[in-house]
Q: What sequence folds into this?
């Protein structure tokens, strides 16, 4: 894809989906722009599967320069997703917020490479925000490397209403920001297993 989107709350410069069942397998979202969220891909209130996806060199004015996920309905088990060289205000690579309050569910992202993304505000690599309920998030077998943010957390920002976040077999390294280069954790419970 190589597109431009200027409207819609969920954005999606290359691919935009809302109220749908979405399966993205072996695709490339490269060089797209959104005047809202999700420079490469914007997904809002959908069932979602991602596998073997490249999201590169995209731009969003607001959140999720590469990938913006909001109100995802199903448990995520997404694998082999590379998010490289994207830019936005928050979550330069990935902005993820479910907000549905599905207590007991675990949203899993496995085998992600989030590399060399930039946020003008916070979360150069990833912004995780879970403000409704206590559904949990797990990032497994992933690399968050070389991302930058102007203000807070070059690597990962975690914000929630007391949700659990699990980081399993992850490498979080060489990220830079004005405050908390690797990770910023706010009102959340973070668990690290074999992660550096």
A:
């Amino acid at each position: 894809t190589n597109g431009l989107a200027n409207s819609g709350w969920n954005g999606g410069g290359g691919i935009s989906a809302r109220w749908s069942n979405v399966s993205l397998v072996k695709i490339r979202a490269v060089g797209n722009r959104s005047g809202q969220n999700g420079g490469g891909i914007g997904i809002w209130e959908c069932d979602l599967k991602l596998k073997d996806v490249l999201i590169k060199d995209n731009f969003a004015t607001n959140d999720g320069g590469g990938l913006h996920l909001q109100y995802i309905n199903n448990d995520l088990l997404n694998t082999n997703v590379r998010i490289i060289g994207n830019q936005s205000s928050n979550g330069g690579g990935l902005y993820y917020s479910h907000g549905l309050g599905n207590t007991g569910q675990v949203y899993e992202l496995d085998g992600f490479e989030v590399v060399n993304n930039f946020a003008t505000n916070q979360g150069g690599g990833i912004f995780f925000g879970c403000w409704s309920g206590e559904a949990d998030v797990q990032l497994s077998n992933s690399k968050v490397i070389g991302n930058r943010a102007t203000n807070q957390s070059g690597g990962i920002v975690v914000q929630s209403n007391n949700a659990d976040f699990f980081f399993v077999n992850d490498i979080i390294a060489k990220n830079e920001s004005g405050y908390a280069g690797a990770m910023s954790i706010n009102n959340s419970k973070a668990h690290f297993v074999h992660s550096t």
